[in-house]
Amino acid sequence: MTRLALATLAVLALTLTGCAPSTATDAGSPATELEPQTLSVYAAASLTGAFDALAVLLEDENPGIDVQVTYDGSATLATQIRAGAPADVFASADQINLQPLASAGYTGPATLFAGNTLRIAVAPGNPLKIENLEDLARPGVITVLCAAQVPCGAASATLLANAGVTLTPASEEQNVTAVVTKIAGGEADAGLVYTTDVAANPGRVEGVTPAGADAVVGHYPIAVVQGSAHAAAAQAFVDLVLSPAGQAVLAAHGFLAP
């Protein structure tokens, strides 16, 4: 678990005791104890810290539940679910990758639960003095982006187009974590990642907020996968994400309200 996730849990222990949702269907119904089981959550890579913390909260509320979260690009996860991967919950970084699954019956109805914006990630200290989107296209600057089919890639394309900036990235990654890794490892000078990714990697990357970032907001939906063998636990996790306690965890990790 990340240090940020642990810190979040410590704060929640003091401020959110009793706020985590039960498995009740409404406020007037008694909680239903979930049977011991393993819950498989497929989530966008940018959700790593927040969902690690939320998994622990659900496990604490339901002894015997083991939440296993698979993180990757939303497009990759959607493809795996279409192919029959044993996911119980899918949380995407955009509606484009989840809504078609819901429409085709692969998941139940999707609900928006968070928002996110982009930042320019650079090495600590910003040695190349990258201050805006135009600097990403400067000669000698090695810029990496998410691939176009990945939510952060689609958002990056929109942000760059809005600014009238054209560039050829050194590589196009399949998830936003890979972009952070290349910058932190010195393989690239800069890239576009989510605000939450910068917050989750202190000391590894720094962030620069580009003009126009607030106009390109990514909206995150979540849904229970149709035919889940753990439907009650899956719904409990979704309810937790949507609850005040879950929203507090997401806000602590830098996410916007949906």
TrEMBL record:
Signal listed as a keyword: yes
Molecular function via GO: metal ion binding; molybdate ion binding
Keyword Signal belongs to the record: yes
Protein's GO biological process: molybdate ion transport
Gene3D superfamilies registered for this protein in UniProt: Periplasmic binding protein-like II (3.40.190.10)
Keywords for this protein: Metal-binding, Signal
Membership in a protein family: Belongs to the bacterial solute-binding protein ModA family.
NCBIfam families, alphabetized: modA (TIGR01256)
Protein name, UniProt field: Molybdate ABC transporter substrate-binding protein
Gene symbol of the encoding locus: modA
